[in-house]
User: Fold E3 ubiquitin-protein ligase RNF166 isoform X1 from Echinops telfairi.
Amino acid sequence: MAMFRSLVASAHQRQPAAGPAGGDNGLEAQFSCPICLEVYHRPVAIGSCGHTFCGECLQPCLQVPSPLCPLCRLPFDPKKVDKATHVEKQLSSYKAPCRGCNKKVALAKMRVHASSCVKVQEQMANCPKFVPVVPTSQPIPSNIPNRSTFTCPYCGARNLDQQELVKHCVENHRSDPNRVVCPICSAMPWGDPSYKSANFLQHLLHRHKFSYDTFVDYSIDEEAALQAALALSLSEN
Assistant:
Protein backbone atom coordinates (compact mmCIF):
# COMPACT_ATOMS: atom_id res chain seq x y z
CA MET A 1 0.00 0.00 0.00
CA ALA A 2 2.81 2.41 0.89
CA MET A 3 4.49 1.71 -2.44
CA PHE A 4 1.20 2.28 -4.29
CA ARG A 5 0.66 5.61 -2.57
CA SER A 6 4.23 6.61 -3.39
CA LEU A 7 3.66 5.83 -7.05
CA VAL A 8 0.40 7.80 -7.09
CA ALA A 9 2.02 10.76 -5.41
CA SER A 10 4.90 10.79 -7.88
CA ALA A 11 2.49 10.46 -10.82
CA HIS A 12 0.53 13.52 -9.72
CA GLN A 13 3.09 16.29 -9.86
CA ARG A 14 2.50 19.38 -7.79
CA GLN A 15 0.18 21.74 -9.56
CA PRO A 16 -0.28 24.04 -11.32
CA ALA A 17 2.73 24.39 -13.61
CA ALA A 18 5.03 27.37 -13.17
CA GLY A 19 4.10 28.91 -16.50
CA PRO A 20 1.20 28.90 -18.93
CA ALA A 21 0.79 25.74 -21.00
CA GLY A 22 -1.12 25.48 -24.25
CA GLY A 23 -1.24 29.24 -24.82
CA ASP A 24 -4.02 31.59 -23.75
CA ASN A 25 -6.76 29.12 -24.65
CA GLY A 26 -5.46 26.56 -22.15
CA LEU A 27 -4.90 28.97 -19.28
CA GLU A 28 -8.41 28.92 -17.86
CA ALA A 29 -8.44 25.11 -17.81
CA GLN A 30 -4.96 24.99 -16.30
CA PHE A 31 -6.01 27.24 -13.42
CA SER A 32 -9.43 25.67 -12.83
CA CYS A 33 -10.46 23.90 -9.63
CA PRO A 34 -10.92 20.12 -10.18
CA ILE A 35 -14.09 20.22 -8.07
CA CYS A 36 -16.13 23.17 -9.37
CA LEU A 37 -14.31 23.38 -12.74
CA GLU A 38 -14.16 27.17 -12.45
CA VAL A 39 -11.09 29.41 -12.18
CA TYR A 40 -9.64 29.12 -8.67
CA HIS A 41 -11.21 31.34 -6.02
CA ARG A 42 -9.10 31.82 -2.90
CA PRO A 43 -7.02 28.73 -3.76
CA VAL A 44 -5.53 26.44 -1.15
CA ALA A 45 -3.02 23.63 -1.57
CA ILE A 46 -2.82 20.29 0.24
CA GLY A 47 0.63 19.99 1.78
CA SER A 48 1.23 16.27 1.22
CA CYS A 49 0.27 15.94 -2.46
CA GLY A 50 0.33 19.59 -3.55
CA HIS A 51 -3.05 19.52 -5.30
CA THR A 52 -4.85 22.85 -5.43
CA PHE A 53 -8.56 23.62 -4.97
CA CYS A 54 -10.81 26.57 -4.21
CA GLY A 55 -10.84 27.07 -0.46
CA GLU A 56 -14.61 26.79 -0.34
CA CYS A 57 -14.67 23.64 -2.51
CA LEU A 58 -12.25 21.82 -0.21
CA GLN A 59 -14.14 22.73 2.98
CA PRO A 60 -16.48 19.67 2.99
CA CYS A 61 -13.42 17.39 2.82
CA LEU A 62 -12.02 19.00 5.95
CA GLN A 63 -15.16 18.18 7.93
CA VAL A 64 -14.58 14.40 8.00
CA PRO A 65 -12.36 12.47 10.43
CA SER A 66 -9.89 11.12 7.84
CA PRO A 67 -9.89 13.41 4.80
CA LEU A 68 -8.69 12.22 1.41
CA CYS A 69 -7.53 14.39 -1.46
CA PRO A 70 -10.48 14.60 -3.92
CA LEU A 71 -8.07 14.25 -6.84
CA CYS A 72 -5.52 11.55 -5.94
CA ARG A 73 -7.42 10.01 -2.96
CA LEU A 74 -4.33 10.10 -0.71
CA PRO A 75 -4.94 10.90 2.98
CA PHE A 76 -3.80 14.32 4.19
CA ASP A 77 -3.49 16.34 7.37
CA PRO A 78 -6.16 19.10 7.37
CA LYS A 79 -3.79 21.24 9.43
CA LYS A 80 -1.36 21.22 6.51
CA VAL A 81 -3.65 22.89 3.98
CA ASP A 82 -2.25 26.30 3.20
CA LYS A 83 -3.19 29.32 1.13
CA ALA A 84 -1.77 28.88 -2.38
CA THR A 85 -0.18 32.31 -2.64
CA HIS A 86 1.90 31.35 -5.68
CA VAL A 87 -1.28 30.41 -7.54
CA GLU A 88 -2.96 33.67 -6.53
CA LYS A 89 -0.02 35.59 -7.97
CA GLN A 90 -0.30 33.69 -11.24
CA LEU A 91 -4.04 34.33 -11.40
CA SER A 92 -3.32 38.06 -11.20
CA SER A 93 -0.48 37.87 -13.74
CA TYR A 94 -2.07 35.82 -16.52
CA LYS A 95 -4.88 36.83 -18.85
CA ALA A 96 -7.10 34.50 -20.89
CA PRO A 97 -9.91 35.07 -23.40
CA CYS A 98 -13.44 34.93 -22.03
CA ARG A 99 -15.18 31.81 -23.33
CA GLY A 100 -18.14 33.99 -24.30
CA CYS A 101 -17.05 37.36 -25.67
CA ASN A 102 -13.37 36.42 -26.20
CA LYS A 103 -12.20 39.52 -24.33
CA LYS A 104 -8.90 39.00 -22.52
CA VAL A 105 -9.44 39.10 -18.76
CA ALA A 106 -7.11 38.53 -15.83
CA LEU A 107 -7.79 35.05 -14.45
CA ALA A 108 -8.32 36.53 -10.99
CA LYS A 109 -11.27 38.51 -12.41
CA MET A 110 -12.63 35.83 -14.76
CA ARG A 111 -15.46 34.70 -12.45
CA VAL A 112 -16.73 38.25 -11.96
CA HIS A 113 -16.50 38.93 -15.70
CA ALA A 114 -18.29 35.69 -16.62
CA SER A 115 -21.16 36.48 -14.26
CA SER A 116 -21.83 39.70 -16.18
CA CYS A 117 -20.87 38.59 -19.70
CA VAL A 118 -24.02 38.36 -21.81
CA LYS A 119 -22.61 35.69 -24.13
CA VAL A 120 -21.51 33.47 -21.25
CA GLN A 121 -24.96 33.76 -19.68
CA GLU A 122 -26.55 32.85 -23.04
CA GLN A 123 -24.31 29.76 -23.29
CA MET A 124 -25.30 28.69 -19.79
CA ALA A 125 -28.99 29.18 -20.54
CA ASN A 126 -28.65 26.97 -23.63
CA CYS A 127 -26.86 24.13 -21.80
CA PRO A 128 -28.61 20.77 -22.31
CA LYS A 129 -30.74 19.58 -19.43
CA PHE A 130 -29.72 16.68 -17.23
CA VAL A 131 -29.80 13.32 -19.00
CA PRO A 132 -28.93 10.03 -17.20
CA VAL A 133 -25.79 8.27 -18.45
CA VAL A 134 -27.85 5.13 -19.07
CA PRO A 135 -31.59 4.62 -19.57
CA THR A 136 -33.43 4.75 -16.26
CA SER A 137 -36.95 4.51 -14.95
CA GLN A 138 -36.22 7.32 -12.52
CA PRO A 139 -38.04 10.61 -13.14
CA ILE A 140 -35.69 13.48 -13.93
CA PRO A 141 -36.15 16.24 -11.33
CA SER A 142 -37.04 19.45 -13.12
CA ASN A 143 -36.29 21.89 -10.33
CA ILE A 144 -32.85 20.58 -9.34
CA PRO A 145 -30.28 20.47 -12.18
CA ASN A 146 -27.66 17.72 -12.37
CA ARG A 147 -29.08 15.78 -9.43
CA SER A 148 -29.12 11.99 -9.71
CA THR A 149 -31.83 10.22 -7.74
CA PHE A 150 -32.43 6.57 -6.97
CA THR A 151 -35.14 4.16 -5.82
CA CYS A 152 -34.74 2.22 -2.57
CA PRO A 153 -34.20 -1.44 -3.56
CA TYR A 154 -36.03 -2.59 -0.43
CA CYS A 155 -39.30 -0.63 -0.38
CA GLY A 156 -39.33 1.28 -3.68
CA ALA A 157 -39.16 4.77 -2.12
CA ARG A 158 -38.33 7.12 -4.98
CA ASN A 159 -36.35 10.28 -5.69
CA LEU A 160 -33.62 9.65 -3.09
CA ASP A 161 -30.23 11.18 -3.77
CA GLN A 162 -27.19 9.25 -2.61
CA GLN A 163 -27.09 10.78 0.87
CA GLU A 164 -30.83 10.29 1.33
CA LEU A 165 -30.60 6.67 0.13
CA VAL A 166 -27.92 5.87 2.74
CA LYS A 167 -29.90 7.48 5.56
CA HIS A 168 -33.18 5.93 4.42
CA CYS A 169 -31.76 2.41 4.29
CA VAL A 170 -29.97 2.69 7.63
CA GLU A 171 -33.05 4.07 9.36
CA ASN A 172 -35.67 1.81 7.76
CA HIS A 173 -34.00 -1.38 6.49
CA ARG A 174 -31.01 -2.10 8.74
CA SER A 175 -32.54 -5.46 9.76
CA ASP A 176 -33.65 -6.49 6.27
CA PRO A 177 -31.82 -9.71 5.30
CA ASN A 178 -32.77 -9.58 1.60
CA ARG A 179 -30.05 -9.39 -1.04
CA VAL A 180 -30.69 -6.41 -3.32
CA VAL A 181 -29.18 -4.69 -6.36
CA CYS A 182 -27.38 -1.42 -5.63
CA PRO A 183 -29.24 1.26 -7.64
CA ILE A 184 -26.17 3.52 -7.67
CA CYS A 185 -23.87 0.90 -9.18
CA SER A 186 -26.48 -0.37 -11.64
CA ALA A 187 -26.94 3.18 -12.98
CA MET A 188 -23.25 3.35 -13.95
CA PRO A 189 -22.07 2.31 -17.44
CA TRP A 190 -19.99 -0.45 -15.84
CA GLY A 191 -22.73 -1.52 -13.41
CA ASP A 192 -24.27 -4.99 -13.35
CA PRO A 193 -28.06 -4.61 -12.89
CA SER A 194 -28.34 -8.27 -11.89
CA TYR A 195 -25.70 -8.33 -9.14
CA LYS A 196 -27.18 -8.44 -5.62
CA SER A 197 -25.16 -7.29 -2.60
CA ALA A 198 -25.06 -9.72 0.32
CA ASN A 199 -24.91 -6.78 2.74
CA PHE A 200 -26.27 -3.72 0.99
CA LEU A 201 -25.88 -1.34 3.94
CA GLN A 202 -22.20 -2.17 4.33
CA HIS A 203 -21.80 -1.82 0.57
CA LEU A 204 -23.36 1.67 0.65
CA LEU A 205 -21.17 2.95 3.46
CA HIS A 206 -17.94 1.58 1.99
CA ARG A 207 -18.25 1.41 -1.80
CA HIS A 208 -19.96 4.81 -2.03
CA LYS A 209 -18.29 6.41 0.97
CA PHE A 210 -16.18 8.80 -1.17
CA SER A 211 -18.95 10.93 -2.59
CA TYR A 212 -21.04 10.54 0.56
CA ASP A 213 -18.61 11.91 3.15
CA THR A 214 -16.38 14.03 0.94
CA PHE A 215 -18.63 16.02 -1.35
CA VAL A 216 -21.73 16.15 0.85
CA ASP A 217 -21.61 18.61 3.72
CA TYR A 218 -22.86 16.74 6.78
CA SER A 219 -21.80 16.59 10.41
CA ILE A 220 -19.41 14.12 12.01
CA ASP A 221 -22.19 13.23 14.48
CA GLU A 222 -24.34 12.00 11.58
CA GLU A 223 -21.45 9.83 10.35
CA ALA A 224 -21.02 8.34 13.82
CA ALA A 225 -24.75 7.65 14.03
CA LEU A 226 -24.74 5.86 10.68
CA GLN A 227 -21.73 3.74 11.62
CA ALA A 228 -23.32 2.88 14.98
CA ALA A 229 -26.57 1.87 13.29
CA LEU A 230 -24.66 -0.33 10.86
CA ALA A 231 -22.72 -2.00 13.68
CA LEU A 232 -25.99 -2.63 15.53
CA SER A 233 -27.59 -4.23 12.48
CA LEU A 234 -24.58 -6.51 12.00
CA SER A 235 -24.65 -7.58 15.64
CA GLU A 236 -28.40 -8.27 15.49
CA ASN A 237 -27.93 -10.45 12.40
